Amino acid sequence: MSELISTAQSPWVDPHLHVWGWEIPVYLFLGGWTAGIMVLCGWALWKGQRDERPHATFSLASSGLFILAFAAISLGMLALFLDLEHKLFVWRLYVTFEPASPMSWGAWILILVYPVLLMGILLDPPLTLTNRVPQLVPLLKKLADNLTLRRITGLLAIGTGVALGIYTGILLSALGARPLWSSAILGPLFLFSGLSAAAAFAHWASPDQPEREYLAKIDNQFLASELAIVLLFLIGLTTSTEAHLQAAQLFLGGAYTAVFWVGVVGLGIVLPLIIQSLAVTHRVPHTPLAPVLVILGGLALRFVIVSAGQISHWSRL
Amino acid sequence: MNAPLYKFGAFGDETSLVVAFVIGIGFGWFLERAGFGNARKLMAQFYLTDMAVFKVMFTAVVTAMLGVTYLAWAGWLDLSLVYYVPTFWVTAIVGGLLMGVGFVIGGYCPGTSVVSMATGRLDGLVYVGGFTAGTLGFALGYPAFRDLLAMGDLGVLTLPEVTGVSWGIVAFAVVLMAVGGFAGATWVERWMTAKADPAARAD
Amino acid sequence: MASLTPTEPAVTTEEHAFEPRPYANPYLAGIGLGLVLLSAFVFMGRGLGASGAFNSTIAWLLSLVAPGYAASNEFLARYLDVPGHPLKAWLVFEVLGVFAGAVLSGVLAKRMSRTVEKGPRASVTLRLGFAFLGGFLMAFGAALGRGCTSGQALTGGAILNAGSWIFMMCFFGGAYGAAWFVRRQWR
Predict the structure, then answer these.
(1) Are the beta carbons of C145 and B98 separated by less than 8 Å?
(2) CB contact C107 to A (< 8 Å)
(3) ipTM computed for the complex
(4) Which of A56, A216, A314, B146 is the most exposed place for a label (fewest CB within 10 A)?
């Protein structure tokens, strides 16, 4: 991908090639997942929840999920970096701010994400850190006991999380050269997909039984919302211009119909939603398969939207 | 005459894959309901303690056969457009025997192993691995099997064509055979239960 | 690996215990299965299957590692020489459905259980080894027999395909013949 998009030779202006491989979908998925973790953990911090265990865990109020999110977004950045054409000029994104360029927005949102994640980790520092640098313990304890700081960190995490989640969709929808992507709904769609994948992971990994139940319940709400947004997305496309209608046809009989309805909707949203809905009302036991399907479905969504978008075009108009 | 719907252009290739998924859900659902995700249930057939494999399979064959027969007779379903695997009698015998032997060793067939894996059984997962490895093995060794695969070619062949009697009579015979088989299977199950537990026979 | 014990207790959460429900009546399950098969004939003009999905998957995987070889392999080429992606095959999506349907049924009947199905006297190692070996053998059987239990016996049985009935008889014959030799695994 060219970092500085301006000329008519840009593939966005003249779409004729598949320019994006696996790197961008993986980046968008990991970014969305990180965003979801930030919102969930931020909410727990805002509500003043604490994890009293000495070591870090995957409960919302501990730092395990923040650490994983830190690793995930870094992996995502690595995937993005692998996709960049001019790897040596990455720094240029940071010397200018282009209000019209989603890449520029993204670069700056990511600059905010890292310190918030770090702050989240420090509020319940893992033993590896406190054992290695015992001098820091009094300071860290003071930070962790500061309720105001916890609440502010929580708010910041929710804010940057929502921004990051929406940005992963806006990044695509700002590229007007692809009718499938030129929908404002992509932002919320990717945000809710990220939230559902994050809640699914936390529901599976959390050590607290009540928290697991709670997370499964909100995961169901995220999945239901995601399903509604998917339908809105398709309705929006079919009731728009001819080019949008053609783009929607990719999912309504066209080349991406099967993988979209079976992989993304059927296996990635509806099936886990059914299982988890029965499980949270205690009619059936929980199964780790449901969250795994949600996470794979989220990944599939990014692959399908990115790949199908590159086929959709404005030509013959 | 408007079925098979796909062959009459009711929907396209992409939609047919969604149809495949929905039909597969039904297939997986009933296999699991029948207990075919459990190798012990499947294998009981061959130690005569539970003849569910025979009962389920033949009830399914009879149901679908009667449905096909009726729909074709009513002029709804064009049987000439339904795909028949061509008959190669030699490979049918070799393949069938090999599948049967593999079945009691592995505990599953390819379809039921997916059900078993989906419901958490580790042996089902390992079976899927074995079947995948075997498929790769066959593909790599394909030249060695090419001649065998071509043996006994009889083309598309149905039982009415072999026996020279009408479809309806063959179908009727299959139903009779199935009903007789069900009665026999139930009798064998009772006999085996009584043998395993002589106290039950005393009353 | 403690969860691999054959007789795993009922699945429990903190406040609820779940008993697995008994399996369905075989005749009812058979009628259901028969109607699903009938719907495949009516909608698609073809029956059910399973082994073909494995062939497509292997063909695709091999085409990633060794594209030239995979395309030249007579057995695999027909699964690669398709208009779209090799995995966009009818049986691949049908088997995805089988997976989803089995999960739905298993969850509703509380039969999801991470366990190994085997006879009381067989070891887990023996069972898993035999599962692999059996799968390996059946892949050859399915490839030679032009279909598996679903694709040949069930499907062909219902449309009175002569080869399918030969296959079905030999399938039961082979299984009964070999059952005595592997009884340690099951009894």
Answers:
(1) yes
(2) yes
(3) 0.94
(4) B146
